[in-house]
Write a structure and sequence with these properties.
The protein is an alpha/beta fold. The protein has two domains: 100 residues, 3-Layer(aba) Sandwich (Alpha/beta knot), CATH 3.40.1280.10; 83 residues, SPOUT methyltransferase, trefoil knot domain (Alpha/beta knot). Helices cover 31% and strands 25% of the residues. It has five helices and eight strands, in the order βαββαββαββαβα. Strands 4-5-3-2-1-7-6-8 form an eight-stranded mixed beta sheet. The mean pLDDT is 95. The structure holds S-adenosylmethionine.
């Protein structure tokens, strides 16, 4: 299983956002929607071996964590607006525990420390960061989870919470990339190792 965790620092936790204002009023939700595309979409298929967590930390009721499960997903299309509508449906749920809002999409009130704590029991955690070890020099187990920021880096508090689980710090190249591009690069690096 490949997993990705993206921290959405300003991403809205209300369902009242407008689909034509994803990058403004929705707190750069557009970045997270592109990350979903990069995590799951192949040319004519969906990656079934991917699970993705989006941690929404914007107002009015953070935190909320969305979980996307590749082998259950239905109704996911490559355009940002339709995925934005799926996220909006999820945010309409009253999440006590984890609730399914549509096939393969779940929402909870989990915070990032809870998420890191749970995930680190199941999988090897990798922190994507520009000053880490070169990805081409690092071996990964089959079950691996990559953590990254959205359009902003992890804050010192988020980084401290993550570092408690002793992640490998890994860089994808010498310069800073968009979060969705990072996911594409990781998928490609891992694909090349199994084909
Ligand atoms: C758009 S970047 C965040 C802001 C960026 N660091 C900047 O200076 O503008 C989004 C996230 O992608 C990851 N990232 C970007 N470039 C990377 C690289 N070359 N290697 C590893 N991770 C990277 C980091 O987790 C980063 O927080």
């Amino acid at each position: 299983m490949r997993r990705f965790i993206v921290i959405g620092h300003r991403a809205t936790t209300s369902a009242s956002f407008k689909l034509d204002d994803l990058c403004g009023g929705a707190g750069r939700l557009d970045v997270l929607l592109r990350c979903i595309n990069s995590a799951f979409f192949l040319s004519h298929d969906i990656r079934r071996d991917v699970e993705m967590f989006l941690v929404l930390l914007g107002p009015p009721s953070s935190p909320k964590t969305l979980r996307f499960v590749g082998n259950e997903l239905k109704y996911l299309n490559p355009d940002e607006r339709s995925t934005g509508a799926l996220v909006r449906n999820a945010l309409m749920q009253k999440a006590s525990g984890e609730e399914r809002s549509s096939p393969g999409i779940y929402i909870s009130n989990r915070s990032y420390p809870e998420l890191f704590s749970n995930i680190s029991k199941e999988t090897k955690v990798v922190y994507l960061k520009e000053d880490g070890a070169d990805i081409r020099e690092v071996d990964f187990p089959d079950d691996v989870t990559f953590v990254l920021g959205d359009d902003q880096d992890l804050t010192p508090e988020e980084e401290e919470s993550l570092m408690a689980y002793l992640p490998n710090k890994v860089r994808l190249g010498p310069i800073s990339y968009h979060a969705d591009h990072c996911i594409t690069i990781v998928n490609n690096e891992l694909d090349r190792r199994i084909s």
